[in-house]
């Protein structure tokens, strides 16, 4: 399927989107701020997962000024459970920058300069919110293009990426059609041209799709080369004083960056060493059920070790620590597995 012979590619995508595409997503037809928030949340996350988070987030932060004025803890509390937490930190940082520089950007180049915004995300925001003629290349669009045009190779490779970006640019319609075209490409990848069991018979590109013609849907796009997923193990310490749990702020970089988490230790650290670390008198209780949490690049085995605090050296937590009442965990900026452990503790 060659680009030159498919001048009606965009026409078919737009016609299909108008009749069969998604028209009820909560960020559709809204301003740049609303579209920006949605596109950041949609990075590496499916629409169905994002929608409830987006609705809660926008109810609390309906505009740029509100988000910029909020504390990072409040922002991350609403982001908790959505994963890839650097996105939430970047969103907050970008909002504060924009509040100083005069509001949401009005062109692709300025959007692309925001923290956490790459080329495809900037293109989607510029096209959908501003009507600017910009290409996108998210995971769904890569899959559509790889299958329709028979693009071989893993899309993460630089040469394959360059070829796909070339196609994405060459296929752009006139600016008047950019919104339905951009939304249509994303909708096709999300609803018809899915990774497994694609619904090819319903696709507007079927007649010219190379993968469909040659029966190569399962082979395109080529899967990422498999690597052994590293396994790590850590103990998370549940230190309970009455109905409160001790939390520590995670470093800004690394996993769960900036969130509140349970203190960590090596899995088999003797209880006396843990008590010495906090200069406290602790009574160890039976361990909670272990958890396995999978990140994009490793699998974490979590061993929850439970202690009742008999004596604490200070009435207040040290800097970087906080005592959190179990009844207050809903709004706290906690990683998902930590939230799960504390919810169990509350039962």
Task: Tell me briefly what this model is.
This protein has 347 residues and is α+β, with helices and mostly antiparallel strands. The protein is 42% helix and 14% strand.
Structure report:
The chain has 347 residues and is α+β, with helices and mostly antiparallel strands. The protein has two domains: 3-214, Hypothetical protein, domain 2 (Endonuclease III, domain 1); 231-346, Nucleoside Triphosphate Pyrophosphohydrolase, CATH 3.90.79. The chain is 42% helix and 14% strand. The protein is built from 14 helices and eight strands. The chain has helices at 9-20, 32-42, 47-60, 64-69, 72-79, 86-101, 108-112, 119-130, 139-149, 158-170, 178-192, 210-214, 271-278, 336-346; strands at 231-241, 244-249, 260-261, 264-265, 281-285, 291-294, 299-311, 321-325. Strands 1, 2, 3, 4, 5, 6, 7 and 8 form an eight-stranded mixed sheet that branches. α1 crosses α11, α2 (32-42) runs antiparallel to α8 and α9 crosses α11. The N and C termini lie far apart (59 Å). Mean pLDDT is 94; it is low at 1-5.
Q: Main β-sheet: number of strands, strand sense, barrel status?
A: 8 strands, mixed
Strand content: 5-15%
- Which runs of at least 5 residues are low in confidence (pLDDT < 50)? 1-5
Number of strands: 8
Average predicted local confidence, pLDDT? 94
Highest CATH level, the class of the largest domain: Mainly Alpha
Q: Count up the helices.
A: 14
* Fraction of residues in H or I helices: 40-55%
The CATH H-level superfamily of the largest domain is Hypothetical protein, domain 2
> What order do the SSEs take from the amino end to the carboxyl end, as H and E?
HHHHHHHHHHHHEEEEHEEEEH
Q: Structural class, from secondary structure content?
A: alpha+beta
* Shape assignment: elongated
CATH topology grouping of the largest domain:
Endonuclease III, domain 1
Distance, first to last CA: 59 Å
Estimated radius of gyration: 24 Å
The number of domains: 2
| CATH architecture grouping of the largest domain | Orthogonal Bundle
């Amino acid at each position: 399927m060659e680009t030159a012979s498919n001048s009606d590619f965009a026409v078919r995508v737009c016609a299909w989107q108008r009749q069969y595409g998604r028209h009820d997503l909560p960020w559709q037809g809204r301003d740049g701020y609303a579209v920006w928030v949605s596109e950041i949340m949609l990075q590496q996350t499916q629409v169905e997962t994002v929608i409830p988070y987006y609705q809660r987030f926008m109810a609390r932060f309906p505009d740029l000024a509100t988000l910029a004025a909020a504390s990072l803890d409040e922002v991350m509390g609403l982001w908790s459970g959505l994963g890839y937490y650097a996105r939430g930190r970047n969103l907050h940082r970008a909002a504060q920058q924009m509040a100083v520089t005069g509001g949401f950007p009005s062109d692709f180049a300025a959007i692309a300069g925001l923290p956490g915004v790459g080329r495809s995300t900037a293109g989607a925001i510029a096209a959908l919110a501003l009507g600017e003629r910009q290409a996108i290349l998210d995971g769904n669009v890569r899959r559509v293009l790889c299958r329709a045009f028979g693009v071989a190779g893993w899309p993460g490779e630089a040469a394959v990426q360059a070829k796909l970006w070339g196609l994405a640019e060459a296929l752009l319609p006139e600016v008047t059609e950019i919104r339905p075209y951009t939304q249509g490409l994303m909708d096709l990848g999300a609803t018809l041209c899915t990774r497994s069991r694609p619904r090819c018979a319903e696709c507007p590109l079927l007649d010219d799709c190379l993968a469909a013609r040659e029966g190569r849907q399962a082979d395109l796009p080529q899967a990422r080369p498999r690597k052994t997923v590293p396994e790590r193990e850590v103990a998370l310490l549940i230190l309970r004083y009455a109905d409160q749990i001790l939390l520590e702020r995670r470093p800004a970089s690394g996993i769960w960056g900036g969130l509140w988490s349970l203190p960590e230790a090596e899995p088999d650290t003797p209880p006396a060493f843990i008590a010495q670390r906090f200069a406290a008198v602790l009574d160890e209780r039976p361990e909670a059920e272990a958890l396995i949490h999978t990140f994009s690049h490793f699998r974490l085995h979590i061993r929850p070790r439970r202690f009742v605090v008999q004596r604490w050296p200070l009435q207040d937590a040290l800097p970087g620590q906080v005592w959190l009442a179990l009844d207050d965990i809903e709004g706290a900026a906690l990683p998902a597995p930590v939230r799960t452990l504390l919810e169990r503790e509350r039962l």
